[in-house]
Design a protein that fits this description.
With about 725 residues, this protein is α/β, with parallel strands linked by helices. The protein contains 26 helices and 24 strands.
C-alpha cells in the first residue's frame, strides 16, 4: 500500500509519498505563508498530477497538522515520535538528533538514557530566529548561506530571543560591521541557544544527525554547531533531504488512515471548510462602519506639523536626523520651525545605504540659483546610530532621543501631560509636569508592544505592513492573541490560522495585542485617564491607524497624533539644533554666519569608507575593534574615525577617534551632595539645654537627611550629623 506522510509545520508543509516497496515517489517542501489549505491542496494536486491516481494511507504530523487530521479523519502522530522513527530507519547507530524547525527545535538522545526534548517558551534556537535576523539585515533567509561563507570574525550575539539579538545586531549594522560576519555570528548564536536550551547540561557526544530546513538550506550551520559543541565535523552529519525527515517518519508510522484514492483526497482538501467555530476569544471590531473611520481620520488630521515651501523658507536652515532601530528619518526646517523637506525610509540594517541618498534628496530640494543663500547652520542626530552618523557624515552634535521627542511634542501641544513614542523596538513614555519630564518609563526586555511585532507578523504572513494594517480596520471578529511576548504571539497566530481565522481578524488582534502590551507592560496604569488630559502619541508605529484605534479603544481616551508622527524624532532634533544656534547667536556674533559641518552633496559622492580590524592593546581585555575610516572632504584634513567593538573609549581615542563625551554632562552625585550638605549650614533651634538628635548620614538616611533635619528642627530639637 502507498503511504503518504504529511508534515504541516509553523511555516512550511512537507509531503512524502512512498510505494509499497518503500521507494520515495514524491516529496515536496514549501512555505505555506499562513494559507495552509491552499499550500496543502497544491502539494497534493501536484502529487496526483505527476504520479496518477492511486490508493494511499495517510498519516499527519506537525504543529499545524491537528486540524487536517480532524477534518479528514486521519491519524495524527506527534512530530518528535515521527522524527525518532525516521532516524532509526535511515540512520541506525545515531547517538543524538537535533532537528530545527521554523518555531521549534527537537533534541533526541537515542543512546544512554533515551530523552526527547523540545523547546517550550523560547524560539531563540529555531529557524524563525534566523528569519528575523535576516529580515533585520534586509536579506532573505536563503542569503544567509552565501553571506556566512565569507565571514572572517565572529561577534557575540545574544541568542536567548530575537529581542536581545536585535539589540546586539543593530549596533553592529549601524557601526558598519560586515554583514558576512554578522550572518555567521547569528548562525552560531542559534546553535548556541539550541544546544544550551535543550541539552540543559547533558553532553552531546557520538554521532550527531542535524535535520530541518535551516540545516538543509544553510549547511554552514554545521560548522557553527561544531564550534559550539566541540564535536568534529566527521561526527556531525547533515543527511540528504534533512528537511523531510519528519514527513518520512509520518509515512512509515504504524498509525495509518483507511485507504483513500489520491484523487478523492485531492478533491476533499480543496472542498474542505478549514474554518470552524472555535473557543478563541474574540474582540470588538476596530471600526464598525466606514463613516466611523472617516470621522477618526478627520479628528487626527487636525494636528499637522508646520510646513513651508522652499521658496518661502528663511535662509538659515537646520537639519535633524533620527537614526532609529528600523528606520531612518531626516527633517529640514527653517528658523520658524516649519518643515522645508523631509525623508523617511527603512534603513534595511545599513545606515550607509540609506542616509546618503536621503541627504542627497534633501539637498536637491533646496538646491538651485534661487536657493544659493540658504545654508544649513546646524545639524543634530538622535537614535541608535547617533555616534556612527556623527563620525561618518559630520553631523554637528547628538542628543538623547527622549529630549528630541519631548521637544517635538511640546511644539505641537505645549500643555502635553503624557507622551508615548512607539518605535520599531522600543517604547518611551514621558510623564510631563510644567513642561519638564517628571518621569520616563521604557520597555526593558520585551519588544512585544513595539512596531516590530506588527511588522514581523505581517512579514511571516508574507504581507506588507500597510496591507496588513488595512486588513485590520474593518475586521469583523478580531482574535484575542493575548499580551505575551512575540514568541508566544507567533504561536497564537499560528493557532488562529489553524482554526481558520481570517487574516484581517488576525491583523486586528495583533493591533490590540500591541496596544495592550504597551499599556500593561510599560505604562502599567490601571486607570489611563489619570496620566493627564493632553496625551500625545508619536513614532512610526502610531502611523498605523489600526494600532492607534486599538490604543484609543483600550484606554478610553482620545489622543493627539501629529500627521507625521514618524518624523517627530527628526523634527525634534532639528528644533534643538535651531534653538541652540539661536542661543549661540545671542552671545557669539560669529555664530550667525557659521555653517554646519555636515557633509556636502559633493562630499557624499566622494565619501569612501575603509574598514580594518585590530586587537586593542590598552588593557588585558584585548577587545576586537572594528575601525572605520571615512575620507574627509578636504584632502588636507585627517579622515574621520569611528571604532566599535570596544568596551571603553581608550582604544578608540588611541586610534584617533573623537571621544563621545564631547558634550559635558553634570556630575549628579556632586549636585546631590551639595544639596544635602546645604542643610548643615541652616541655623539650629535655640534650645542648647534640650536633647540632641544624632543623624548618621549613611544608607537610606543619607538621602532622607534633609527631611529628618527639617522635622526635628520644627520640633525645636537640635541635630548632630556624624561628621560634627
Amino acid at each position: 500500500m502507498n503511504r503518504l506522510g504529511i508534515d504541516i509545520g509553523s511555516k512550511t508543509i512537507k509531503l512524502m509519498l512512498r510505494d509499497e516497496n518503500g521507494r520515495v515517489l514524491y516529496s515536496c517542501y514549501k512555505r505555506h505563508r499562513s494559507k495552509v489549505q491552499k499550500a496543502l491542496g497544491d502539494a497534493v494536486h501536484e502529487c496526483y498530477w505527476r504520479y496518477g491516481d492511486r490508493e494511499v494511507q495517510i498519516t499527519v504530523t506537525g504543529s499545524a497538522g491537528m486540524r487536517v487530521a480532524e477534518l479528514f479523519d486521519v491519524p495524527f502522530v506527534q512530530e518528535v515520535v515521527c522524527l525518532k522513527r525516521a532516524v532509526e530507519n535511515l540512520n541506525p547507530g545515531t547517538d543524538v538528533v537535533l532537528e530545527m524547525g521554523g518555531e521549534d527545535t527537537k533534541l533526541i538522545y537515542l543512546t544512554g538514557a533515551l530523552e526527547e526534548r523540545m523547546n517550550t517558551i523560547c524560539a531563540g534556537g529555531t529557524g524563525g530566529f534566523i528569519d528575523a535576523m535576516a529580515g533585520l539585515m534586509g536579506k532573505r533567509n536563503e542569503d544567509m548561506q552565501r553571506l556566512a561563507m565569507g565571514h572572517s570574525m565572529v561577534y557575540p550575539i545574544a541568542s536567548r530571543c530575537a529581542v536581545f539579538a536585535k539589540s546586539d545586531v543593530r549596533p553592529l549594522l549601524n557601526s558598519g560591521a560586515r554583514k558576512e560576519d554578522i550572518a555567521y555570528s547569528v548562525l552560531e548564536a542559534v546553535c548556541t541557544q539550541a544546544v544550551a536550551g535543550l541539552s540543559a547540561g547533558r553532553p552531546i557526544r557520538g554521532k550527531v544527525i542535524l535535520l530541518g530546513g535551516p540545516f538543509e538550506y544553510i549547511p554552514i550551520m554545521r560548522d557553527a554547531f561544531c564550534n559550539v559543541t566541540g564535536i568534529s565535523k566527521d561526527n556531525a552529519l547533515i543527511p540528504k533531504n534533512a528537511h523531510l525527515y519528519v514527513a518520512h517518519g509520518a509515512a512509515i508510522s504504524p498509525e495509518m488512515s483507511a485507504p483513500i484514492m489520491l484523487s478523492e483526497f485531492d478533491k476533499a482538501v480543496h472542498d474542505a471548510e478549514f474554518a470552524k467555530e472555535d473557543a478563541m476569544q474574540r474582540l470588538p471590531p476596530l471600526f464598525t462602519a466606514k463613516s466611523q473611520y472617516e470621522a477618526f481620520l478627520k479628528r487626527h488630521s487636525s494636528c499637522k506639523l508646520p510646513r513651508v515651501a522652499v521658496l518661502d523658507a528663511s535662509n538659515n536652515l537646520f537639519l535633524g536626523v533620527d537614526a532609529g532601530s528600523t528606520t531612518m528619518k531626516v527633517a529640514l526646517i527653517d528658523e520658524s520651525g516649519a518643515l522645508v523637506a523631509w525623508e523617511y525610509a527603512w534603513n534595511e540594517g545599513d545606515i550607509t545605504n540609506s542616509l546618503p541618498w536621503m541627504l542627497q534628496n534633501i539637498y536637491s530640494k533646496v538646491d538651485g540659483r534661487w536657493a544659493e543663500e540658504r545654508v544649513i547652520r546646524k545639524s543634530c542626530v538622535v537614535g541608535y546610530g547617533e555616534d556612527f552618523v556623527r563620525a561618518a557624515y559630520g553631523v554637528d552634535e547628538g542628543e538623547v532621543e527622549t529630549v528630541a521627542h519631548l521637544r517635538a511634542a511640546r511644539a505641537i501641544e505645549p500643555d502635553v501631560d503624557f507622551l508615548m513614542d512607539i518605535g520599531g523596538q522600543d517604547i518611551k513614555c514621558f510623564y510631563v509636569k510644567d513642561g519638564q519630564i517628571e518621569d520616563i518609563v521604557l520597555n526593558e526586555a520585551c519588544s512585544s508592544g513595539c512596531g516590530s511585532l506588527f511588522d514581523s507578523i505581517a512579514r511571516s504572513m508574507w504581507i506588507s505592513k500597510e496591507e496588513f494594517a488595512n486588513m485590520a480596520l474593518f475586521a469583523k471578529s478580531p482574535v484575542d492573541l493575548g499580551t505575551r511576548c512575540s514568541t508566544f504571539m507567533d504561536s497564537r497566530v499560528k493557532h488562529a490560522q489553524k482554526e481558520g481565522a481570517s487574516r484581517g481578524d488576525i491583523a486586528a488582534g495583533v493591533a490590540y495585542s500591541t496596544a495592550r502590551n504597551a499599556l500593561f507592560k510599560v505604562v502599567r496604569q490601571p486607570d489611563f485617564s489619570s496620566v493627564g488630559e493632553h496625551i500625545v502619541v508619536q513614532g512610526g508605529a502610531f502611523a498605523n491607524d489600526a494600532l492607534l484605534r486599538a490604543f484609543e479603544l483600550e484606554t478610553g481616551v482620545e489622543c493627539i497624533r501629529p500627521d507625521k508622527s514618524e518624523l517627530m524624532g527628526a523634527w525634534g532634533a532639528a528644533l534643538l539644533a535651531r534653538d541652540r544656534w539661536m542661543a549661540e547667536c545671542e552671545t557669539d556674533e560669529a555664530a550667525k554666519t557659521r555653517v554646519s559641518g555636515l557633509i556636502s552633496a559633493e562630499g557624499l559622492d566622494s565619501l569612501q569608507m575603509k574598514r580594518s580590524f585590530k586587537r586593542c592593546d590598552q588593557c588585558s581585555n584585548r577587545c576586537k575593534l572594528t575601525i572605520l575610516e571615512f575620507s574627509a572632504e578636504d584632502s588636507k584634513d585627517k579622515p574621520r574615525i569611528y571604532v566599535t567593538g570596544n568596551r571603553c573609549e581608550r582604544g578608540a581615542i588611541a586610534l584617533g577617534a573623537t571621544p563621545s563625551a564631547s558634550r559635558r554632562y553634570p556630575n549628579m552625585m556632586a549636585f546631590e551632595n551639595n544639596l544635602i550638605g546645604a542643610y548643615d549650614s541652616k541655623p539650629q533651634p535655640e534650645n542648647e539645654s534640650g536633647p540632641v538628635i544624632g543623624i548618621p548620614r549613611v544608607l537610606s538616611l543619607y538621602e532622607s537627611y534633609p527631611f529628618w533635619k527639617t522635622f526635628f528642627s520644627a520640633l525645636g530639637l537640635r541635630t548632630l550629623a556624624e561628621h560634627e
